[in-house]
Fold this protein.
Amino acid sequence: MITLIGTNLAQKGLEFVHCGGASPCQRCRFKNTCIDTLEDGRIYLITEVKDTQHPCPIHEGGKVKVVVVEKSPIKALIDSKIAFEGSNILFNPIECDNGCLDQDLCAPEGLYEGDRCKIIKNLGKSQFKCSDGTDLSLVLLEVF
């Protein structure tokens, strides 16, 4: 999908979290292309940077570039019983209050409860077991 990003940030391979538009964006003629195509809270990966630039009062330097983005794959821990490459799952974050080191992978940024995801790759079993005894696997998920 096409969007706009500050010229200083427009680099192939850059990942960013879309946090919505600022108040001046609501009146901008580029709003439909710039922010309306993106979902708040999602992580995007820039796959191509175009030469086209447009003025923007929000970004440093006062300009934005046209970029092609896609939703970025996200690493997450899920129950090993459902961690099969190529399968589709409904993401359910693992919620606990144990303060374990893997908490950022149990409920990673960019994923929401009920998201439909495809398991792109199973990266192996986690060295940690969930406090409820569940075996966890680290996977790479693609939201669709």
Summary: The chain has a mean pLDDT of 92.
